[in-house]
Specification:
9-stranded mixed sheet; Neuraminidase; 2 domains; 39 strands; Rossmann fold; 16 helices; about 675 residues; alpha+beta; 8-stranded mixed sheet; EC 2.3.1.231; single chain; tRNA wybutosine-synthesizing protein 4
């Protein structure tokens, strides 16, 4: 690498440090983290989205958890030291000093020379910071840009190991005392040979040492592709990922380079296992939030690692504090399902959306409504409907623009659409923003001849509900399923969430066409509250599968609401092997088999494909989706799907979401999954 390009590369990497300081500062301002020093060091202020706040909260929490554990375990020792690699504008030293945790610990921070100089200037110019370091002249020499009694700031390129070693020695680093190394999203920006050398050097030169790493993992799944692309576009490629793609590889890396103990957790596991329940609840209620999928995907793509050697007692900060099944093992795949893009539909931008709903209004004709997506080159809540129909084996689509008063349609997300005849459908619930109340119900009326070549007009009428049924509509991420009781047709509205309740477990029986709320007795074990589950009609009853439960934990239960003589009964369907807990999937029933499509689960080793549950035997088989013929990452959450039983074809429309700070990914065109090989009729 020539010096010019090396300099520009270091500038790009420094940029990531600056933007992460701004994000941490925004998270602190909203009460996620307690840190009064961030605003002094971050420079510019900018309010970030709730998803970003959560992401930086978990990062700060993981690092703090391990650092404080190190200080606690070594508090009886006369002297210890912390070496923060690529510290940027982090406030760690000031926070620990302010909390009185540095009685016998010196903190060394290393970053690029110009970053270290900027930070030194900031500290000297700000009374609140310089007062904490204590006035020891503070002027550094050469690479030492700031030198306090228990705080040294060094300007060195981490990839120049001999220079790093020389400067640390000059600054007074003592190889003989217990040392904690911190690398918070740092090593991955270095060439692997150089980061490996640094890890090995630390193990070889420090007899009693601990090493803390927080960075990215799982480059190969759809979210991982979007994440990698983002960092490549910033010209800050993530080098570690190719060689160390998962937590196990990172663990082997440290154990093979001189560290004797090493534990690692992804952030879903850390949040569930190492953060007390009351703190989880506090964070979950700090601001209106409805991006669960992206939060859990972000967490499955970052890990925290704690390695140590020579420590007595041994350093194990990543032991679960709660007895929950933390580590999700690998999911065994039975086979694969081929995916093919509907290339003819790639020119229809309105099909790039998520949080929408698609319904089969008659054979081979699909109506797609609502959601968030792409319209006129802009990302927005979708007002237009789309009609898809199949002609001569090919799907065609047309946009149906409506002159709808905004209040009525409300550009909604996470609603349901139930077709009651080939000219009539009912829209239930949905939301605009997560802090708004639900949006009520609408009738959609379309002509009998409606298809993609001549959709005609879709008339929208507001439904005025009796007071007893109103609550049924003020929700989103719920399900609405057609069912029968005593030969009459009903709609069963179940679960979801509302602006006031993060998760609902109630249900309503609505009798069309007047949609009156009917009291029908239900017995049996009541399913735990959930949203983002799936619901299908089966034998007059309703099958509920998965969902996200009260503590934002995915559920793996399957329930059947079955008709009895005087009402209904909840029955648990036992699956074996047990269904991997998931949510944000879609579902269909075909010849006694429940098909679950996509979704989000905590098993980072694979993404959910198609799961087939035999409703007679409970046998549960997972199939991976073969995406080799797709030229883009297929994200199967917040999608919609329609099953065509004759062709055993599943059409997946839309899907994707806001991928943390890496940009929005919308599946560019609908995808057809051929299920004929896995649905062999017996």
């Amino acid at each position: 690498v020539g010096s010019g390009s090396a300099a520009s590369l270091s500038r790009q990497v420094q940029g990531t440090g600056g933007s992460s300081a701004v994000s941490k500062c925004s998270a602190a301002a909203r009460g996620y983290i307690q840190d009064r020093f961030l605003r002094l060091l971050a420079g510019r202020r900018r309010r970030r989205a709730p998803l970003i706040h959560r992401g930086y909260y978990i990062r700060a929490r993981a690092v703090d958890h391990c650092v404080q554990d190190f200080l606690l375990k070594t508090q009886s020792l006369p002297r210890t030291q912390i070496l923060s690699l690529g510290a940027g504008f982090d406030s760690l030293y000031f926070r620990l000093k302010d909390m009185g945790l540095l009685h016998h610990t010196v903190v060394y921070e290393v970053d690029f020379p110009n970053v270290a100089c900027q930070k030194a200037t900031l500290i000297k110019g700000m009374k609140e910071l310089s007062a904490l370091v204590g006035d020891t002249g503070g002027e550094g020499l050469g690479a030492i840009t700031f030198s306090g009694e228990d705080y040294k700031l060094l300007g060195v390129d981490l990839s120049e190991l001999s220079e790093l070693e020389r400067t640390l020695e000059e600054a007074g680093l003592n190889n003989a005392i217990p040392t904690l190394f911190i690398a918070e999203v740092v090593l991955t920006y270095m060439e692997n040979t150089r980061s490996d050398a640094l890890i090995q050097w630390a193990a070889e030169h420090f007899p009693q040492a601990c090493f803390l790493v927080y960075e990215q993992v799982h480059p190969e799944d759809p979210f991982g592709h979007v994440m990698q692309q983002h960092f490549s576009q910033l010209n800050t490629a993530l080098h570690s990922l190719a060689q160390y793609p998962d937590c196990e590889a990172q663990q082997r890396r440290f154990l093979g380079k001189g560290w004797t103990e090493c534990s690692v957790m992804d952030m879903n596991e850390f949040f569930t296992c190492c953060i007390p329940e009351d703190e989880q609840q506090r964070v979950q209620t700090l601001e209106p939030f409805d991006e669960y999928e992206e939060w859990h995907l972000k967490c499955s793509h970052y890990f925290v690692l704690a390695a140590s050697k020579g420590m007595e007692p041994s350093w194990t900060p990543l032991l679960p504090s709660v007895t929950v099944p933390c580590r999700a093992g690998p999911v065994g795949m039975t086979g694969s399902v081929p995916a093919a893009a509907c290339a003819r539909l790639s020119g229809v931008p309105g099909l790039r959306r998520y949080g929408h709903h698609s319904a089969l209004i008659k054979p081979n004709v699909i109506l797609t409504t609502g959601g968030f997506g792409e319209e006129d080159g802009q990302h927005c809540r979708m007002r237009n409907f789309h009609v898809l129909s199949k002609h001569a084996g090919c799907w065609e689509a047309v946009c149906v623009t409506q002159n709808i008063p905004d209040k009525r349609w409300g550009e909604r997300l996470y609603h349901t659409v139930s077709c009651l005849s080939d000219t009539l459908a009912l829209v239930v619930g949905g939301r605009t923003s997560p802090s708004s109340a639900g949006l009520g119900m609408l009738w959609l009326k379309f002509p009998q001849t409606c298809n993609a070549s001549g959709p005609g007009d879709v008339a929208v009428e507001f439904v005025s509900l009796e007071p007893a049924a109103e609550e049924a509509a003020l929700r989103w991420r719920h399900s609405t399923t057609e069912m029968t009781f005593k030969g009459e047709k009903y709609l069963f509205v179940y679960g979801g969430r509302s602006a006031l309740e993060p998760v609902l477990g109630d249900w309503y029986f609505l009798h069309p066409p007047e949609l009156s709320h009917t009291e029908i007795a239900v017995e049996g074990p009541v399913p735990e509250s959930r949203h983002s589950h799936s619901a299908c009609s089966w034998e007059g009853g309703v099958l509920i599968a998965g969902g996200l439960g009260a503590a934002e934990q995915p559920l793996g239960s399957v329930f059947l609401l079955r008709e009895l003589e005087h009402g209904f009964q909840w029955q648990t369907i036992e699956t074996h092997p047990p269904l991997v807990p998931r949510y944000s999937h879609t579902a269909h029933v075909h010849e006694g088999k429940l098909l679950l499509v996509g979704g989000v689960w905590f098993h980072a080793s694979a993404v959910p494909g198609v799961t087939v549950i035999d409703l007679m035997t409970g046998l549960c088989l997972d199939y991976v989706i073969n995406v080799e013929h797709l030229e883009w990452p297929l994200m199967l959450h917040n999608h919609s799907s329609v099953f065509l039983p004759d062709e055993k074809e599943l059409l997946v429309i839309g899907g994707g979401g806001n991928c943390f700070s890496f940009g929005t990914h919308l599946n560019p065109e609908p995808v057809s999954l051929s299920l004929s090989s896995i649905l062999i009729s017996h």
